[in-house]
Design goal:
The complex is a heterodimer of chains A (about 55) and B (about 525). Chain A is mainly α and about 55 residues long. Chain A has helices at about 5-30, 35-50. The chains are: A mainly alpha (about 55), B mainly alpha (about 525).
């Protein structure tokens, strides 16, 4: 298995690459989600501006 | 190495860092900017900053050296770092942390917990734990960074420590979290480039991926000859199940660090720096790839260094550990210095400097906010300007860390052990004290203040007991067990002495949290509705 002796190490090697791929695919699929994000962002920002902590 | 070339590269690097720190300073107008970077950070900066904070020089040098000893089994930690440290952290914890942080107007990790459970005591206690325990971890990172600078530039350790700390302190104190995250992002990009070149060089010089692995597999008899008694079966195989090496690898390295990362205050606060879940979704991909290229490359290269040293005429027949005079922390620097071209050595040195500085800056910031905002302001009720209180607190915590980093290596000769111990103590304590409460805060509406406080103290005390009296890795150098009971560990020669505190303290904390949660009265609906507003 790619020159490795043990199955445990091979799984760790592949697992690391696959988990990074999972992150990348998740990031791409959800790139613009949630779709109603912008409206909520504006609402939240307005709320935040009025609640600034003591500076 | 060409000192002139290195000096020029370091100078250019420092000028860019100074500029980015200044940018953070200029853009910091209020406490929200200073504490959570204005909550409008770009997903790329957030992801790289998270990754660069996560990965310190000791992760590359220390754990890379460990891979030269344990072998590629360490890649299970990379797997955990990506799946748990990035995917689960961002998707399961990050989104709710961000939203709840917004709902509760929380500016720090302890403040999130304190406001969620309506307990100033919990906020102050969490802040105090960070303030007391984090300097040990920070001191370890400072020792690693300063030792590396003093060896590379052949300067005095104290001088290296002072300059290194002063540079980071200035941009953290002046620029707040914006300064920290901007510099982190730049340092992260440098780290990514450095590690990518390293991976390419190593595989190509050793004849390709499979060929390199085959050469390492062929060295298994050497590994068994030297480490066989501990359970080693070669660098491309896992150690023997339940052997001392297996226990060390799986419980301390893979689980201790792999799970511990979820409850790191300096990382959790980053979820509150972005304005929506969309930024977190985008950051997941960047973060996953970044961590793969950091620890994944460090562990593969660390293990493969054995092939190089064993076949290199100057160290013929010697494995990495022997070639580096039995100093695990010297393996990666020695490998870089002898195996790679001089121009790359200079670049790699800056990569390591960036790794140390990016972790350190976030530690300074988190310690300062924990003491200033959480302990002094909320716990002791100190009135005043949040930014100024935090800045003063930051100075105090930096001086404490500096003292630890200066004096600790004088008392203990094993510098490499200090770095590993300091890191694992902090990771273990945070996981046991914070993780059940943090998860409960985000997911269980039924979670009560009493359950949170009980889980916090049971996890903290169990962890402290285990590392002081049972886990040999800490109990032996601490020496408290020896003084009180005349033995180095209460576990004697049994395998309990090898079991990491997190394996015991985390389940204890989870059980106590759950039991108390179901034995106490449900929290007020009004507070729960406020916390979970907009959270499905």
């Amino acid at each position: 298995m790619w020159g490795m002796e043990g199955r445990g190490v091979f799984l760790a090697y592949i697992g690391s690459i696959l988990s990074a791929l999972l992150c990348i695919v998740y990031g791409i699929i959800n790139w613009n989600k949630p779709k109603d994000g912008e409206v909520k962002e504006i609402e939240e920002e307005v709320k935040w501006e009025t609640k600034e902590p003591q500076d | 190495m060409n000192i002139l070339l290195l000096s020029i590269i370091v100078l250019v690097y420092l000028i860019i860092i100074a500029y980015l720190g200044y940018l953070g300073y200029k853009q910091t107008k209020n406490a929200t900017d200073y504490l959570v970077a204005g909550r409008k950070v770009h997903p790329f900066i957030m992801a790289i900053s998270y990754g660069a904070t996560f990965i310190s020089t000791s992760a590359i040098i220390g754990f890379g050296g460990a891979a030269a000893v344990y072998g590629m089994g360490l890649l299970w930690l990379t797997f955990m770092n990506i799946l748990v440290g990035i995917f689960i952290a961002f998707v399961i914890f990050g989104k709710r942390t961000r939203k709840m942080g917004h709902n509760l107007d929380a500016h720090t990790f302890p403040e999130l917990l304190g406001k969620r459970f309506e307990s100033r005591f919990l906020q102050a206690a969490s802040g105090l734990l960070i303030f007391i325990a984090m300097p040990v971890y920070t001191g370890s990172v400072m020792i690693g960074g300063a030792q590396f600078i003093s060896q590379t530039l052949s300067i005095n350790y104290a001088v290296a420590l002072l300059f290194f700390t002063a540079i980071v302190a200035v941009y953290v104190i002046m620029g707040g979290l914006k300064g920290v995250m901007y510099t982190d992002a730049f340092q992260g990009v440098l780290m990514f480039i450095g590690m990518s070149i390293l991976l390419f060089f190593v595989y190509s010089k050793l004849g390709g991926i499979t060929q390199a692995h085959k050469a390492l597999t062929a060295l298994a008899p050497e590994a068994i000859k030297i480490f066989g008694a501990g359970g080693h079966r070669g660098w491309t195989a896992m150690p023997l199940f339940k052997s001392p090496m297996w226990l060390q690898l799986v419980t301390t390295i893979v689980m201790g660090v792999g799970i511990g990362v979820l409850a790191q205050p300096q990382l959790a606060v980053r979820f509150m720096t972005v304005k929506s879940d969309r930024e977190l979704n985008r950051a997941v991909g960047v973060g996953g790839l970044f961590i793969l290229m950091m620890t994944g490359v460090a562990f593969v290269v660390g293990a493969l260094s054995n092939v190089y040293f064993f076949n290199n005429p100057a160290t013929l027949g010697k494995i990495s550990m022997v070639a580096a005079n039995k100093s695990v922390d010297n393996i990666v620097p020695l490998f870089i210095n002898t195996f790679l071209p001089p121009w790359f050595t200079a670049i790699f040195m800056v990569t390591l400097l960036a790794a140390a500085m990016s972790t350190l800056s976030s530690q300074f910031h988190t310690m300062g906010t924990a003491m200033g905002r959480d302990f002094c302001e909320k716990g002791l009720g100190v009135k005043g300007n949040t930014m100024n209180i935090t800045k003063i607190s930051m100075c105090v915590t930096i001086i404490i860390s500096l003292a630890i980093a200066y004096f600790l290596p004088r008392f203990l000769e094993t510098g490499s052990a200090i770095i590993a111990i300091g890191t694992s103590i902090f990771f273990g304590l945070c996981a046991a004290a914070f993780l059940p409460m943090y998860f409960g805060a985000l997911y269980f509406k039924r979670m009560t203040k009493a359950a949170a406080i009980s889980g916090f103290f049971s996890g903290l005390l169990t962890s402290l007991f285990w590392l002081t009296f049972v886990h040999a890795k800490e109990s032996v150098p601490l020496g408290i067990c020896k003084k009180l009971f005349g033995v180095q560990t209460l576990a004697g020669a049994s395998k309990w002495a090898l079991l990491d505190p997190i394996v015991v303290a985390l389940p204890v904390s989870i059980i106590v949290t759950l039991v108390v949660m179901f034995c106490t009265k449900k929290p007020e609906t009004v507070q729960i509705d406020k916390c979970f507003e907009g959270i499905k």
